[in-house]
Amino acid sequence: EVQLVQSGAEVKKPGESLKISCKGSGYRFTNYWIGWVRQMPGKGLEWMIIIDPGDSDIRYGPSFEGQVTISVDKSISTAYLQWSSLKASDTAIYYCARGRGPSYGWPFDFWGQGTQVTVSS
Amino acid sequence: DIQMTQSPSTLSASVGDRVTITCRASHSISDWLAWYQQKPGKAPNLLIYKTSSLQSGVPSRFSGSRSGTEFTLTISSLQPDDFGTYYCQQYNSFGGGTKVEIK
């Protein structure tokens, strides 16, 4: 059974750094792109960033390049999303999700449970 | 980047109704258009990929089609479990969402 399990909720102050995780299981981790989607309170889905765990090829969504960093640790089938300096506007639920196919462009067929990130002074 | 414009933003329909949601791309795109359903407090669920392919486990009352740059999700006979917000997606862009309510 394919599963993506995300790390728990975080409460941070503006300016702090943060790294959240997404552990895949039930499939060959390096065979499928894995991405992150933001959902701000009461708002729609925003496509942020995606990585090919096999070769670390990265693609960005509109407005997210330079704002976040994505990485993977293939040895533990885990993807990460990282901020160097959080802002209050980063408050949102962040979902990781697996690309349905082996190349960029496939939609997301399995999703993590979401990680709530709250940034407040 | 491609902009995806969904309509309507909300709709209310009765059980058994045929429901149509539209997603228009800002310029000509491939068939790499997907549809998701999201229920409150839950992660999205993939319904349709490559414009008209039904994701495994999704009821056959859901279907997708295309005419030029306009993509359509159709629910042939709305069921009580079909409430939620529906999103289209193409490459690195989601549409704004359509909230479906059951009358």
Note the main attributes of this structure:
heterodimer; A: 121 residues; mainly beta; seven-stranded mixed beta sheet; four-stranded antiparallel beta sheet; 11 strands; B: 103 residues
* Rg of chain B computed from alpha carbons, rounded to a whole number of angstroms: 13 Å
Please report the distance between the alpha carbons of the first and last residues of chain A: 40 Å
Strand count, sense and closure of the main sheet of chain A?
Answer: 7 strands, mixed
Form type of chain B: globular
- Helix/strand/pairing category of chain A: mainly beta
User: Runs of chain B with pLDDT <50, length 5+?
Assistant: none
Query: Beta-sheet strand percentage of chain B?
Result: over 45%
| Secondary-structure element order of chain B, N to C | EEEEEEEEEEE
The best one-word shape of chain A is globular
Distance between the termini of chain B: 37 Å
* C-alpha-based Rg of chain A, rounded: 14 Å
- Strand/helix succession of chain A: EEEEEEEEEEE
Question: Main beta sheet of chain B, described?
Answer: 7 strands, mixed
Helix content of chain A: under 10%
Oligomeric description of these chains? heterodimer
Strands of chain B, count? 11
Give the count of helical stretches of chain B.
0
Question: Which percent bin holds the helix content of chain B?
Answer: under 10%
Biggest chain contact: A-B, 23 and 22 residues
Mean pLDDT of chain B: 95
